[in-house]
Amino acid sequence: MHKKKISILIPDGEGPVLMIVLNCLSEVKGLKIHVMSDDNDIPMKHSKKVSKFFYRPKTDSDSDYINNINDIVKHHSIDLIMPIFEDGIRIITKHKNLITDTTKLALLPSYTDFKKAINKGTLTNFLKELNLPYPKSQIVKTDLKFDISKVNYPVLIKPVESAGGGNGIKVFREEKDLIAYLNSDKYNKTHLIQDYIEGYDIDCSVLCENGKILAYTIQKPNMFAKSKFAPQISFKFVKEDKIFNQVKILMKSLNWSGIAHLDMRYDENADDFKVVEINPRFWGSLEASLFAGVNFPHLYCMSSLNEQFAMPDYKLIDFMLMKGLVKSIKNNKSQLLKLKFIFKNTPFKYMINDLKPTLYRFRSFFLRKTGISKKRN
């Protein structure tokens, strides 16, 4: 709870994590949330958790985007500018000098460190410099100029910068299939070829200030949406000192400020944990960390406003996102009867406590389906 009402502006409300960030912030009294978005139809504009919604059409001009932020901050007594997703964070870190009052910015990395973290190629080189475990990787462009002799199969191929949701990630077990795929690539993107690590995924979420970790959780997924490269929808929180110590070195070396989510993988052959990528933004399992005892968005606000707090501990709970719950119920109808688990280990309570966005989401889904059926007829 804050001594005075704090007005927060989320300038990138079109980001897919808005709902879960708002759910976490709704647990705290004394916060007034303003949302700016270039999409006037987002369901969360109807949420009772949003004090004011500002529609500002998408523009190719970064300075226009910053000017929109400055205008809202000036006329609505905003205390904190808190971007939540990659594009907004990228623009603000790049053009920080254009923000009228930079003291109102949430903790953010430098633009140089942001680029170093989000690009898998530069991150790989940085991990190598730090002598931290990482999957053997090399950059490849569509002209196929890379050393095929250094590829050990099976391999992953992925976009150098995250496409989100596991999009663009493929596994190849033979050279001829990899070459055929690269020859057919129509997108003219730079890719990363990476050794496929036998083992399991494990993630670490952090909040940092000048390289110091202020809060963290570690979670191991046990269910994925569609494939093992798709977002995790059910997981268990764990403690793992090896991971924390590695992440501590990495974040300190990046002099990281703000939030980040590290995708990692346990290598069963090398018996170590390898950093696969860093997502320099809020993440899909944010509500899970909240239920485990770490409210990252609120702690982010506190640290950005120079409020002190002790590093929170977290509970070793199991948690399912709504997609995980639906999938679980489809597989076993008796899950419907586990009401205590549903209320304490899923975000179900947020859906029923804030019905308007849910209804608008269903309405949009229905209209899309209706439109498709009409076209087919």
Key words describing this protein structure:
13 helices; 377 residues; four-stranded parallel sheet; six-stranded antiparallel sheet; disordered C terminus; single chain; alpha+beta; globular
Textual characterization of the structure:
- This protein has 377 residues and is α+β, with helices and mostly antiparallel strands.
- The strands form 3 sheets. It has a 6-stranded antiparallel sheet, sandwiched between helices.
- It contains 13 helices and 14 strands.
- Mean pLDDT is 88; it is low at 373-377.
- It has helices at residues 18-25, 62-75, 86-94, 111-118, 120-130, 175-183, 241-254, 286-292, 296-304, 322-331, 339-345, 348-353, 355-376; strands at 6-10, 31-37, 52-55, 80-81, 137-140, 155-159, 170-172, 191-195, 199-209, 212-224, 232-237, 258-267, 272-279, 318-320.
- Helix content is 36%, strand content 23%.
- The radius of gyration is 21 Å and the shape is globular.
- 38% of the residues are buried.
- The longest helix has 22 residues, at 355-376.
